Amino acid sequence: MLSDPTRITRRPVPADPAPLPPPISYASRPRIHPKAVRGHYRRIKTALAAVLLALFAVLPWLRWERGPHAPNQAVLFDLGNQRFYLFSVELWPQQIYYITGVMIIAAIGLFLMTALGGRVWCGFTCPQTVWTDLFVWVERRIEGDRSARIRLDQQPWTLRRLAQKAAKHSIWLLIAFATGGVSVFYLTDAPTLVVDLLHADAPALAVGSILFMTGSTYLMAGFMREQMCFYVCPWPRIQAAMLDEESLVVTYQDWRGEGRAPLRKSQGWDTRAHQGFGDCIDCDQCVQVCPTGIDIRDGIQMECISCGLCIDACNDVMARIGRPGDLIRFDTQAAQSAKAVAVPPAPYRLIRPRTIVYSLMLVVVGGMMAIGLALRPNADISILRDRAPLFVTLSDGRIQNAYTIKISNMTLGERHYRLTVSGPAEARLSLAGDGAERSELALSARANAVETYRIQVRVPQTALSRPSTPLIVTLAPEPAAGSAARPEPVRHDTVFLAP
Ligand code: SF4
Ligand code: SF4
Asked: Is the CB of 294 under 6 A from ligand 2?
């Protein structure tokens, strides 16, 4: 009679392996040729990669009507004009802290994802993983699966090998070039750049950027692959701090699998169990499909990117030998420890102190960002006081200071403003080149542009009790056409200098 395959029993643990050599910071590694695998996680990975690659390629072509004074590309990081456009959101250089906020949200999101499911970001959605997967797929289509590729690499250079390698590298370079091109489409108007490229009239900076991205993609996805994760990306080293005993990680159920040994045809499962062997038949399939070349049976490792492919491989083996699946599975370390001593594990807990803290942080930072974006002013001023000369004494005895004022009109229509100053009493204003003095100046700024004005402030000496008097410049936007709402004024502090 077959033993109950789901029962929890302890298996003999193999003897300690030989001591490891002292660690070294870098050693050239044998090339990894991951074997193709079918299964649940492979399907998820392929579907996610297809969606992400499609999004990456399509986003620069989406249009978003912003009127005549702004580009109509929905997602545009316009470095030349120092503007970031994300659908209805437009960010100016002085609002760059929103980008910092987005990065903080992304980091906290990554912490939360890791606390819940280990390195699923790395295994399923990281660009390095997605592009490497694509490059390996091309390699497999041209050179064959793992064993064929290993054989090919060991063969002398024949015409066939040369043709296969040339075909592979040509397609890799095409994909890398497409990646480089699409990356640069995010930085400039995509249709215009395509036309310029076709007419060999594209700016040198754009061509240089495309070539740089082409080279980086070719190198990182074609050659460096898992070594980017081992030696370049800091995340594998940081992620351990985000995990706890109850995070889901890819685990080998050693209590069920050990001791491992190949399955002999004549061997029944009961006999095998009595001989001290478990469900692992030491077929090495889990190692052969692993994109980072590790053996998950050695325990949780920094190199594991939680891609789940070893689970697919082992489940396939278990199905073929008539044993229950999930010998390798996403599981928590707490459950692993419980199973090792034949105690039923506690159910997986999604809500734990760590996930609550990360979720709260996400809500707080996300909320602050949303409120900040909704309430941000749509005008800004920067003021530069003339330093040479610091002040001028006019013939009537008054003191004059001159300022350069830059008004950023962050709306998509022309706007008018009233500029006033407070601080020194009896201050009068005039525009440089226009002698007329006023208590306030009427200024305007073109849509989505920065307008520069030179103004002079004149104050009687009798109104100044000290050499430096605080001066507050207030820019009050007039209501937009067709709107009765008066936007909040913006203020800027500077000083008025006197002898
Ligand atoms: S695929 Fe499963 S049975 Fe084969 S070696 Fe890996 S753990 Fe053991
Ligand atoms: S051990 Fe398994 S989950 Fe981890 S990287 Fe290798 S195949 Fe992916």
From this structure: yes
